[in-house]
Write a structure and sequence with these properties.
- This protein is of the alpha+beta class.
- Helix content is 25%, strand content 24%.
- It has a 3-stranded mixed beta sheet. It has a two-stranded antiparallel ribbon with strand order 1-2.
- 12% of the residues are buried.
- The model has no long low-confidence stretch (mean pLDDT 87).
Length: 135
Amino acid sequence: VTPIERNRVNLTFTVTEGESARIREVHVVGNKAFSESTLLSLFDQDSGGFMSWYTKSNQYSRAKLNADLETLKSYYITRGYLEFRIDSTQVAISPDRKDLSVTVNITEGEKFVVAGIKLDGNYLGRDDEFKSLIT
């Protein structure tokens, strides 16, 4: 605390940063159509591996987690799960503040498939050619 004019003070804080917490485990809950290992392979963030000291893949980042969740959503939607949703995400820190646990709760919903395609109109006898462009 350093006094300055007009009855004010300057405050100086000294911050000592410790090591950043590492992701110890990541879980996806509610998946039925795809295995947890398949879904986790889509994530950039993970619990680390041989090269995590270099890739920093086990360092938590909210922005990276959001990107991973968008990738997960896209994965499901492109495979016909149009009602897929992410219900919640929990990030829990260990009591020693060194490890993180990430849990993603999802609902897959029904899988939608295209049952058939019907073309209406006058295609001048080239119906098969147009159908081949669609399927």
